[in-house]
Amino acid sequence: MDAKEELVSLPIGISFFDQVIEENAFYIDKTLLVKDLLDRLSAVTLCTRPRRFGKTLNQTMLKCFFEDTAPIGGKDTRTLFKGLKIESAGAQYMEHQGKYPVIFLSFKEAKRESFDFSYGRLKNEISDEFSRHRYAIEKITEKKQKLFEKLASGEGSLEDYSTSIKFLCECLEIYHGKKAIILIDEYDVPLENAWVCGFYQEMVNFIRPLLSSALKDNTCLQFAVITGCLRVSKESIFTGLNNLTIISILNNKYSEYFGFTQDEVDAILKYYGLEEKRQLLRDWYDGYMFGDTEVYNPWSSVLAVTGWRDSINALPSPHWVNTSSNEIVRKLIDTVKGEAKTELETLMAGGTISKVIHEDITYDDVYKNADNIWNFMFFTGYLKKVGERLDGVKKVLELSVPNLELQYIYETKIKEWFNERIEQRDFGKFHEAILSGNAAVVQEELGDFLLDTISYMDGKEDFYHGVMLGVLSGIRNYNLKSNRETGLGRCDIVMRHSSGRGKAVIFELKWTSDMREIERKRDEALKQIIDGKYAEELRNECYNDVIKYGVAFCQKSCEVGKLPY
Known about the structure:
Blueprint: H1 3-6, H2 17-22, H3 32-40, E1 44-48, H4 55-66, H5 85-88, H6 91-94, E2 102-106, H7 115-132, H8 142-153, H9 158-162, H10 164-176, E3 180-185, H11 189-197, H12 200-215, E4 221-228, E5 244-247, H13 262-271, H14 278-285, E6 288-290, E7 293-295, H15 298-310, H16 327-335, H17 338-348, E8 353-356, H18 370-379, E9 384-391, E10 394-400, H19 404-422, H20 428-436, H21 439-452, H22 461-472, E11 478-486, E12 489-497, E13 503-511, H23 518-531, H24 536-540, E14 545-554, E15 557-563
Parallel strand pairs: 1-4, 1-5, 2-3, 3-4, 13-14
Antiparallel strand pairs: 6-7, 8-10, 9-10, 11-12, 12-13, 14-15
Helix pairs in contact: 7-8, 10-12, 11-12, 16-19, 20-21
């Protein structure tokens, strides 16, 4: 066995702390999160981070640390923390290990196409947690035992389940003589899914009493930690909850516990002998700012390092953007227009945009205005903070694309989705004008189309060449040739009627960054058609009707000229 094979493996796809430790996988020690939670003594902590940034791993770590496992099998969880940072933090912290009843719920499976199916998954998750704590039934009243059994068996009503977490807290405190800890992972998945699928208010009506009853004025609660991607406004979900501490990516609290810091990444690379990949890993997966802490995407970093262990010359891949169907971003493409489209193009070109940041938002609010869209994309990891300032009492952030991995979604996915949208455009008038030789209408229609396109490549001729190929491809019975040798040179685009008769059309394209030069560039294109004798070969092929266009582009404008027959 060689040295590389003797190294422990990175945990790919393992989100459970005990499994990572028991399988001796490489673990980036985040256990001081326990210390910070105990030191700060917040009744309810909501921590929002982008997906795949270690939320579930941390939640299961907290479960393993705090849970009294004696009534549920007696697994010794203390050994899981041997040699980890929390063990060295002081005996006063380890005194809390294994001492509390813990309610652990994950809402990530509630991503279903209807309320009934989504609610069904939530009900099953809650029922399973009641079943896991079935031992507690022996110390509660007969009346409560009946309700407990209904909830554990999945036979409770929607109203029963809407206050079930609080009820389980009560039962556990009676049994243990200690208040319960509540851990809820991916709390906002059912809300986002419900918004996308069209049953948002139904889901809010269930989630609101479920969480409010468990977290507000619950005398059986020790503390709660909730994780998700987005901070949903207190008014929509956490009504009247005054003991809620919200830790978003703007906060410094707990900033180092989600994602990998530079020191942690350096430790991984050193362990696997991959120090030479430091800058490449940084370019692709670094760049997120949680508070003042710069972090790497842990999911993508782990996959990249694993790939390099197998093949040192493996190229980086956009792992993170492939972990979700990106429904919200897709919705952006369906609605973006005007200034928002210009801002999107700025981001795609590597620039920054300035946005007022507000953290309280509901999914119903996301598409009410463009600023809400950018806020959502920032808090869910599609944008990063590169600067901030105050505008009166408003906080304004400078935002950009975090890294090369995220640049992928802007350069491919967004462009792909936008192209799907514009494929539905009616080009009938445009095509008719081309074949009739009406240069004025061609210019008008092409100009309107340019205003509706998305481009991060303004200033590159190949972008405009691609635009022309796209808008011409739908003309029936015509074949397109691009950059084909014709006459004494190479014209940009030639269209021939498929029958070998009929019309042929020549396009010569030019580009300028200076709007004052656009008409001259148009005339230059027309002259090149003449000087290059581009029409001669077509006439030799018996195309007597050859239409010759010179087109010049500058940003979102165009000038179209036509030579006489």
